[in-house]
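User: Second chain of the day. Same drill as before.
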Amino acid sequence: MSYPSFTSESVCAGHPDKICDQISDAIVDAVLEQDPNAHLGVEATATEGRVLLLGEIQTTAKVYYAAVARREITRLGYTDPKLGFADDCTIDVYIGTQSPEIAQGVDLDGAGDQGMMFGYACNETPELMPLPIMLAHRLTLGLDEAHSKLPYLRPDGKAQVTIRYENDKPVEVTHVTIAKPHREDISLDQVKSDIYSSVVKPILDEYGFKIGQDNFVLNGTGVWHLPGPRSDAGLTGRKIVV
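Assistant: Same format as last time:
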């Protein structure tokens, strides 16, 4: 398939949907650590000041699900109650036992759900992934890692990258769009300059591409100060491929 340009998006670890993904993953890991033969499906949803844990588990493990969820919220940087979502939030647990009708379908090596994937093996990047999604992933990872250098950044965020192709080969990064919340006392111009020099430029340089600040958009809808589930509810599974 030929296309003149292609755009991919990735989200930061503190994105509301990713919070829920990581809470679900952490609960699964905690259960399997005690009971490798457990069967479980765990969903999470997050909103202002509250997390709901939902699902079905068949296991002998003894896990305090709310404590696991709270540790993940802390790890992801949500420690300030003033932001409307933090590790002191209410956590409601509605996890029951697995239905025997579902169990009979998965007990004998069956699959209880579907899988999603994006990308394919190719030579566009050292990681053998398509360049647009790989750059988007690297930028969001770079944003997460930049918190130690730019402490005014807050959890949450996303990155979108557009690549121009010629003869099915990537030849130019035409646009980079990033959304990233930050403290109110830091100007948008400073945040844009810092993220460009600390994240965007070095990562694109690593892959042999460049982009000027004119084609780099930060928080295109204006200021963004309140991150995470305070601004947008999260749900497990909506960002599996990003």
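The mean pLDDT is 91.

User: Great, on to the next one.
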